[in-house]
Amino acid sequence: MVVHTNDINNRIIHLTVNGFVEKFVTVKPERVFLNGPVDKNLSATLEIIPEEKYPFKILGTSSLNGNNIRVKLKKNSGSKSTQYFLTVQSTAKVKGKYFDLIIVKTDNQIHPEIRIPVLGNIL
Fold this sequence. Notes:
The protein is an all-beta fold. It has a single domain (23-122), classed as Immunoglobulins (Immunoglobulin-like). Helix content is 0%, strand content 54%. It contains no helices and 10 strands. The protein is flat and about 70 Å long.
């Protein structure tokens, strides 16, 4: 990274930043692909697992567009850690491609949202 200053002796400073990035959540898979014929029921289920060090609750879900998908959230707290299952279903009735973004709202102040891309290809 280059930093420009108004210091006559040090107009340009080369700056290196190091740090450790900790994982907040595991989302499997990280994105949704809905690909198939218009007359088929296209859906995918994602697993959302909060990291033990950074627990959170999901407050709700929404989508950026919402015209071609429907989402359903299910919580599973039977195991030692809480996990969520998010089912994404295509509601598209015409052939073509679409893109949407699922926004998962959490109660975590540092990461209030998890964004999951959705790509649809209706044949």
